[in-house]
Amino acid sequence: MKHQLDFEKPIIELQRKLEELKKHPAANDIDIKLDEEIRRIEEKIEETRKQIYSELTPWQRVQLARHPRRPYTIDYLKTVFNGFSELHGDRLYADDHAVVGGFAYLDQRKVMVMGTQKGRDTKENILRNFGSAHPEGYRKALRLMRLADKFRLPIITLIDTAGAYPGIGAEERHIAEAIAVNLREMVLLNVPIIAVVIGEGGSGGALGIGVADRVLIMENAYYSVISPEGCAAVLWKDRAAAAKAAEALKITPKDLHALGLVDGVVSEPIGGAHNDPEGAAASLKAQITLHLDEVAAFKDETRLKLRYEKYRAYGHFLEKPPVSAVEPQPLPATVI
Amino acid sequence: MATTTFVKKTLGLNKTEGTNKSPILKPESTFKKPKLGVSQSRKKDIPEGVWTKCPKCSAMLYDKELDENLKVCYHCHFHLPITARERIHSLVETCSFEEMDASMTSVDILQFTGVTSYVSKLEAYQNSTGLKDAVITGVGKLGRHRLALGVMDFTFLGGSMGSVVGEKLTRLIETATDKGLPLAIICTSGGARMYEGMFSLMQMAKTSAALAYHAKKKLPYISVLTHPTTAGVMASFATLGDLIIAEPGAMIGFAGPRVIKDTTQAELPPGFQTAEFLLDHGLIDAIVPRKELKEKLGFYLDFMSQSQSQDTAVA
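Structure tokens for the assembled complex are given below, as produced in the milestone run.
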């Protein structure tokens, strides 16, 4: 089997055994216990899978998020949504294929959906730039979001990127500014916004389409301020320390949810989304619908207020209480 | 998060007068002298705290004169690093600056288990810089304009943005919005602070959200990019100014040059990611030398805050 991860090996080993058994029934036809043996191995596969997936390390989670067979944005556009009709271009420079977006139906509901898109093979990866968007991608996303705002369509963004593209053209056309403007403008959009990290949530490149009323993350995805490898290179001076960095950065859905940094975790079938794409899509669809129903029920004003307060509340720090309780002013002023 | 390679001299951390009236040179021992970036070998032949070598033209600069010149080489006009407090001195009217949230400090919310602990890093930088974190915020007067001013300091953990930087700036922006004040942020940062993980990333959204409401009230915001300004800070408040100003020669960009080189395997164009390069490529409104910054900011604000009453009382 192609694209196996180290920790998946015991499962794949058992699957191979199972296939062998199934392939040669004639050679074994004297053995009346064959059926039982097959059932025993099948059970063992389920059990092993459950066990492996219940104790994944953060680094294994990162590897799953990057699994080359994991469903990408376009896959979910077909399974979660229907009638997707792509809209192209940022009206400024180019059409960035690392970001796809357009009209779609979520059941009966008309929505604007967009997301970062990786490629399955070399050819597609070149087209999609490995899922790393240029400024044009972020500007296209904002154009579509403003369109959605104008015509009262809820916005759903799917995030799966290692990060915004670190390239010469990206710098020349101001990728940082493109992301920053999105952060500012998404706060003011009147329509509901749901963002879901479906694979890799790579730093500013992910956040650039990730400001939302509800931010969800799939069970085997991650969301981080810096790639574990990048963090390891800076703090451990060794990219091989990525597993340690993945742990220290608290980037798993469970940790992020416990810290209040995401609003919900979308569960995946055992064995991960790549093992059961339909199951993953059903789960994702249910969660998007649930959260969209909730935030759509608010008045625009209330939703915008709640969105601001949600981001406003992020952060942990210490403050000395004011020296005098009588003085209501913001802490002892230092005059210099 | 690169560390600066500049030779750093800090006289003036605890000064109470304007920098222009530079004090009599006091013995070095009265100051807590930051040790960051000071090469040990250099100290052998040069008396400590008197002379600084210009990193660009190698001229020996008398510290007193260098301070008076706002840390700009008086031979080649190279802009050496300047601390946040020195910068504030250079911009606001004497005794007009009221600092906000001066006691706010970072906490190790993730209990970051790295090579060194976050707590020990914080302590070391607090001791070496005399700062609580990487930004100073407050309200002061610049000429006749009452101004909400945030100044970052690269010497504190590479000016990285964690919860404290994000919160102090957000409160500053909100204060400006509430009181109808113009806003200026002098940026310098290596980006989001890794030690606080996703909380740091969220400061980008938080500060940008606060700026959205500041802009909605049609209040002016001027962002000043100084050496170096990169990554998460670039991708949030630094590039959201009504005006984006830069200091000459400042390194400004999103991704680090090494990362870009490694990813693209391409030669970087000359002057890539400098203030001048970005002026050419249309990001920056103007490059303003440090010594002209105060005057220029005042000039810009004259055009951008005509509807604001100049004497709005701020307690």
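DSSP finds 14 helices and nine strands in chain A. Chain A touches chain B through 63 residues (CB under 8 Å). Further analysis is deferred to the final report.
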